[in-house]
Every structure is written in structure tokens, then in C-alpha cells.
Amino acid sequence: MRLFLLTALTMCAFAANSILNRLAIDSGASDPAGFAIIRVLSGALVLVALVLLRGGSVPVFSRRRVAGAGSLSLYMVGFSVAYLTLDAGLGALILFGVVQISMFAIGAVSGSAPTLRQVSGAGIALGGLAFVLWPTEALHIDPTGVSLMTAAGIGWAIYSIVGRSEPDALSGTAANFIVALPVTGLSLFVFGIDWQMSLFGYALAALSGGVTSGLGYALWYRVVPQLSPAIAAIVQLSVPVIAIAAGVLLLAEVASLRLLLGAGFVLGGIALAVMRRSRG
């Protein structure tokens, strides 16, 4: 039960990132690139402060940072720039579809192949997510945006797998954010950045970075070693559904029948994959 609650809390933190990002960008309070940079900076500051307060150290120069911080930077940059040309729903489908495939593949190679039950549950959940998020109007797919979001999905999958071997979730996440900051900043400036942020935008980005990203990712690093790669991939399909539900409650968005049906399939698929068959 404790693992379930911690996993659910982590998924809510991930969903909160989507809400904060959407609120900042849609309101014009921030541009995507600026939001990403302040998000990483805030996460680094909060995490380092927490590590130092408990008398710990931040292993910035560990070999783990190559994969940890590198994959985090790949996710942050790909995610931010891809949404300049992709519809939000389609971007989420690409991201979580790639995360599924990547984590399943990595798990299979490392000797933790998904079971038929897990694959079936993942398929049902991903189908439900597609039903909710797939655009209904004429769709223009930008190949550059698709490539960037695919890279973001691969980055997040690697980041999640690397977290399984991180000895200290908090200090490891802090070090990842520190190393990822200059990499993310330089990469976004290369793509071109039009820094337009209001005080409200800075506040939303800082909240996303310091709390729902920084602490959320540290909690994820604590939880993910207790989950198989397949389960870790599947439970993340709940994030868009939680984000959409939060949008209904907090941003006065409409709860359609399509949303309710799709959410039911997502949660049902996750339950099928995660719950163990009773014996006897």
C-alpha cells in the first residue's frame, strides 16, 4: 500500500507539471524555453538546499551524471521545443508511447521482459489515451516536432531506468539537475529563445521546478527501483489522465464523455497490468 501511495503521489506531481506548464504558456505568462530553464534552475536550488540541510553531499562528478543528467537534459529540451509545433494531445501520445516502447525494450534487454498481462494492459491503457488525446480536426504533423518529442521520450525512459541504481534519490536528483542546467540552457539558446516571462510566469516555473519536478523526480528515483521497468512505464500512462482531470477541476475545462470513457480504459489497462492474479 505504501508503494502504491508513493507511486500515485509521484504521478500527481508529474501531472501537476503539465498543469503548471499549460497555465504558464497558455496565459502568455511565459515562453516554453524560458519556463524550462527556470524550471531546471529552481529544481537544482531546492534539491541542493535540502541535501545540504541534511548534511549530505551532491555527487556532481559521478559517472552516473553522464546518463542521469544527459537523459534529463534530452527530455527537457526535446519536450520544450517540440511543443512549439505539436498539438498538446498528440505530443503527449508520442511522448508516452515512446516511453512505453523504450522502457519495455530496455527491460527486455536487461532480463526483465514484460509479461503478456503487462503488454495487454499497456495496450489497453495506451489505446484509451489515444482515444482521449487524438485530435479530431484536420491534423498537421510537424516532423521536427515529432523527432524532438521522440527524443524526449527516449530521454525520460533512460532517466527512469538509470534511477533504479541511484544509491541516494535526493542527492542523485540534485546532481542531475545541476549538470542538466547549463546543458539545457545552451541547447535551448541554440534552438532560439525569445525570453518573455512575467512575474507570474517565473512563479509558475519556480513552483514546477522546485516542487513538482525537483521533489517529484527525487520521489520517482526512490519509487522506481521497487517497480519493474514494464510497470514503471505503464503507470506513467495515468499522468495525462490526471492532468486532464485536474484541468477540469482547476482550469474549468470540460469533462466530455470521450474523456470519461478514455480515462476508464487507461485506468483499467493499468490495473490489469499492475494487479497480481490471486492464487488458489
Strand content: under 5%
Kindly name the structural category. Answer: mainly alpha
Computed Rg: 18 Å
Distance between the termini: 22 Å
User: What is the general shape?
Assistant: globular
Comma- or semicolon-separated keywords:
Threonine/homoserine efflux transporter RhtA; 280 residues; mainly alpha
What's the helix and strand layout?
Blueprint: H1 2-26, H2 32-53, H3 64-82, H4 88-109, H5 116-133, H6 143-162, H7 169-191, H8 199-223, H9 229-235, H10 238-250, H11 257-274
Helix pairs in contact: 1-8, 1-10, 2-3, 2-7, 2-8, 3-6, 3-7, 4-5, 4-6, 4-9, 5-11, 7-8
Describe the protein.
By secondary structure, the chain is mostly helical. The chain has one domain. The protein has 11 helices and no strands. Helix 2 (32-53) crosses helix 8 (199-223), helix 4 runs antiparallel to helix 5 and helix 4 (88-109) crosses helix 6 (143-162). It is a multi-pass membrane protein. InterPro entries: AA-Vitamin_Transporters, EamA_dom, EmrE-like. Residues 144-274 form the EamA domain. Keywords: Membrane, Signal, Transmembrane, Transmembrane helix. Residues 1-15 form the signal peptide.
